[in-house]
Design a protein that fits this description.
Blueprint lengths: L6 H15 L10 E5 L6 H12 L2 E6 L10 H20 L3 E6 L1 H5 L10 H15 L20 E5 L15 E5 L4 H11 L7 H10 L5 H11 L1 H11 L4 H5 L16 H21 L1 H16 L17 E5 L2 E5 L7 H12 L3 E7 L1 H4 L5 E2 L8 H14 L4 E8 L4 E9 L6
Parallel strand pairs: 1-4, 1-5, 2-3, 3-4
Antiparallel strand pairs: 6-7, 8-9, 8-10, 10-11
Helix pairs in contact: 1-2, 3-5, 6-7, 6-8, 8-11
Length: about 425
């Protein structure tokens, strides 16, 4: 299999890494390079290809290592790996980098439901401290006055807007949004299918047919083509003998002939994969389960769930009696009656309102952004803020969120607008 390195990717990494090993007078060089973009576009793999091409050694930290039951462990781990990498530069006399994969998954905060732990705070603070003092990185409980070699840090992620803002500011982190263009995609996909004899025209047609798919899609497609041969092999040796013939065979591993890599066969298999993607995106079984659980819990211990009540005949104002007092409700000609009633019901039960929006790209990753700085507890404020949000973000998704301030949990999440103002 051939490998294609996108020129833009190679240029960005090479410049950042080399710049950090040079002593430029009067120039403050950002220590961290943040590579972000949508999932499956090969950010990590492109980094590995660049490292191999430039002969750079890498020390890895994964996003999953940035949380621990013991406070301070992830921050200490980052400092330890940084010092180890600095020692490698000194001992081996070559470029080395520290790479943190999926930083936003380990240290990001996606919404009010994401816990912001002590370790999350310490990881952000540690990376900020290292970026500000790259030659003076100490381990807790010890101090070594010997200056360290400067170690460039490469971090990858999908959505850096979820990270602590001071960490990603200019001066500490240089940002690079990786979105392969058509030329990059054709080059990468050509490398994936290089052993299979596809022509340049066929590669271009395959990429253009599935233009919205990520790089990983085409790699998975090549793997899927082998399924038919493997299925035939399993039936040939029977299911009960597969383990003995594959794992502990005296005859060696099975061999397969080259599958059918005709363009029509590839497109047919790819369409099946796209169909499976659509089923996943449209099933939304978790939302259904959550609604059932919220309903079940509300009958057992929580206040009653939001239920529709009768609408006023004129649609202008409505009065409701609460504890012997009359409360005047405001009404909006721009919101549906159902949305207005949901707001009233949430507030009457002691919940607070939040409003969130997201564009179509971030909708796929669930990276909603809040439209208000605090939770709303007044009906007029909720309606006016919601109207303003619908107008401002008319081409985005907008949802209404009900929050239980005592339990600190969400009780309702309702999408009230889809792109282009569709309700």
């Amino acid at each position: 299999m051939g490998y294609y390195i996108a020129p833009r990717f190679l240029d960005k990494l090479a410049v950042h890494i080399t710049k950090n090993f040079l002593k430029l007078p009067g120039v403050r060089v950002p220590l961290i390079l943040g590579i972000h973009g949508r999932k499956g576009e090969g950010k990590t793999f492109q980094c590995e290809l660049v490292f191999e091409k430039m002969g750079i050694e890498v020390t890895h930290v994964s996003g999953g290592e940035l949380e621990s039951p013991d406070a301070g462990d992830p921050a200490r781990l980052i400092r330890l790996r940084y010092r180890e990498t600095a020692e490698l530069i000194k001992v081996r006399g070559k470029m080395c980098v520290l790479m943190i994969n999926d930083l936003d998954a380990g240290a990001g905060r996606f919404d009010e439901g994401t816990q912001y732990t002590v370790n999350t705070q310490l990881v952000n603070a540690t990376l900020m401290n290292i970026a500000d003092n790259p030659t003076d990185v100490q381990l807790p409980g010890s101090y070594d006055s010997t200056p360290l070699n400067r170690v460039p840090i490469i971090v990858t992620g999908n959505d850096f807007s979820t990270l602590y803002a001071p960490l990603i500011r200019d001066g500490r982190m240089d940002k690079f949004y990786w979105e392969p263009d058509r030329e990059d995609k054709v080059g990468i996909v050509k490398g994936i299918f290089e052993p299979d004899g596809l022509s340049q025209r066929e590669i271009e047609q395959l990429v253009d047919t599935f233009v919205n798919q990520s790089i990983d899609f085409f790699s998975a497609l090549r793997s899927r083509i082998y399924d038919e041969q493997i299925r035939n092999y399993i039936h040939k040796v029977v299911f009960e003998q597969v383990s003995l013939n594959v794992v502990n065979s005296t005859q060696g591993p099975p061999e397969f002939q080259k599958p059918n890599f005709n363009l029509s066969h590839l497109i047919e298999s790819a369409k099946l994969m796209v169909g499976e993607q659509s089923r996943v995106e449209n099933s939304q079984l978790v939302d259904e389960y959550n609604r059932l659980n919220r309903g079940r819990n509300s009958h057992q211990s929580a206040p009653p769930a939001v239920t529709p009540i009768s609408q006023p005949s004129n649609g202008a104002t409505q009065e409701a009696k609460t504890n012997g007092f009359q409360t005047h409700h405001v009404s909006s000609p721009h919101l549906t009656l159902e949305t207005q009633e949901q707001i009233r019901q949430l507030l009457s039960q002691g919940y607070k309102i939040s409003i969130e929006h997201v564009d179509e790209r971030r909708f796929r990753t669930g990276s909603w952004q809040s439209c208000v700085n605090s939770h709303i507890d007044a009906e007029s404020d909720a309606i006016s803020n919601l109207e303003a949000t619908l107008t401002k973000y008319s081409d985005e998704y907008v949802r209404l969120v009900g929050i239980d301030p005592k339990a600190k949990r969400r009780v309702v999440e309702t999408i009230i607008q889809r792109p282009n103002g569709k309700n």
